[in-house]
Amino acid sequence: MVVADGDGLRHKPEVAADLARLLDLTPAEQAEIIVVLRAGTLDELQPTPGIIESLDAARAAGFEPFIVTNGRPSQQEGKIAKLGLADHVAGMVVSEAVGVAKPDPEIFRIAARQAGGSLDDGWMVGDSAEADIRGAVASGLRSVWLRRGREYPTGMPDPTHVADSFVEAVGLVLSDGASAL
């Protein structure tokens, strides 16, 4: 399912159409799949241990952690609320709300403006080589790719660093000592 969903990057109606063809589903069943995919797994979300402390350490070091995410605002806002992150980040830009998605550099520029900064010394920490790292490189940002047990895809721009967890990624950013996005 993760592959069919493009690691969360494919449009949900396209994924549902592929599943409907594969499983010979009715239009009503296909519509229900879209609803389920868009809802995501909000009930299953659990905060990564150390994530809040890492965000707070980044802010204490002068960084402005900012979420840049593809998707629908209601889904992304639900995730942030469920994980308790809202008070630990400077803000969030959601692709559907601004009309541009990662890897387009414009979404990173929008985030920088909302954060009151620039991309000059910024960082992108993300788990998608296509959306996050390609977007970071195109925007002139340094980057940390979250491996999460995977091999880095060939043919993608290289990240500045690779980390196994968000906590490790923030540690790498803090050790480099520039400002963050």
TrEMBL record:
InterPro entries: HAD-like_hydrolase, HAD-like_sf, HAD-SF_hydro_IA, HAD_sf. The keyword Protein biosynthesis does not apply. Signal peptide: none annotated. Its cofactor is Mg(2+). GO terms for molecular function: hydrolase activity. One of its GO terms (biological process) is small molecule metabolic process. Keywords: Hydrolase, Magnesium. This is HAD family hydrolase. It comes from Brooklawnia propionicigenes.
